[in-house]
Amino acid sequence: MKIQKLFKITEEDKIHYKELIQVIDVKQKDSIVFILRTKIQNLLDEGKLNSVEAELIKDIGKLAKILEIYQDLPDLIIKKILFAMSYFIDENDEIPDVIPNYGYLDDITVVSWILNDIEDKLPQIPNA
C-alpha cells in the first residue's frame, strides 16, 4: 500500500492550503530553508528513520533542489514549495509529528501533492 493512501487531502483541505499558500512571504525563503535543514538534521541524528520519514526527506530534498536550480521560478511555485517546507517544519500540523509511525503521514502527503502540482510547470533545463 502506498504511504499516501494512509492520509488523504480533501478538497476542503486543498482550498484551505491554497489560501495559506497565497500568504506565504517569498522573502522568508532563507529562514524557512535554514529551519528545514535543522529539522532534517535532527531527524537524521535520531538515527531511526522509518520509510515515511526517509521518503519525506527525499521529497523535501527535491523541493530544495528545485529552488536551487531554477532561479527564475514564478512566485506562485516558490510559495507552493515554501508552503510544503513550512508544513513539514510545523510539528503541530494535522497529525502532530511526535506521534510514532503516523506523525509524518500528513507531511508526506502535502509534500507529494505540491511536487505533483508543480512538476509540469517547471521550466526545461537545456541539454548541456
Helix- and strand-based class? mainly alpha
Taking the alpha carbons of the first and last residues, their distance comes to 39 Å
**What sort of overall outline do the alpha carbons produce when their principal axes are compared?**
globular
Low-confidence stretches: none
Main beta-sheet strand count, sense and barrel state: none
Count of extended strands? 0
Strand content: under 5%
Task: Give the tally of structural domains.
Answer: 1
**What is the tally of helical segments?**
5
What is the arithmetic mean of pLDDT? 89
- Percentage of helical residues? 55-70%
Q: Could you spell the SSE succession in H and E letters?
A: HHHHH
Q: Whole-number radius of gyration?
A: 14 Å
Descriptive notes:
This protein has 128 residues and is mostly helical. It has one domain. The protein contains 5 helices and no strands. It is globular, with a radius of gyration of 14 Å. The mean pLDDT is 89.
Descriptors:
single chain, 128 residues, mainly alpha, 5 helices, globular
Sequence-ordered SSE layout with sheet pairings:
Elements: H1 11-22, H2 29-46, H3 51-69, H4 75-89, H5 105-118
Helix pairs in contact: 1-4, 2-4, 3-4, 3-5, 4-5
Q: Summary?
A:
This protein has 128 residues and is mainly alpha-helical. It has one domain (3-118). The chain contains five helices and no strands.
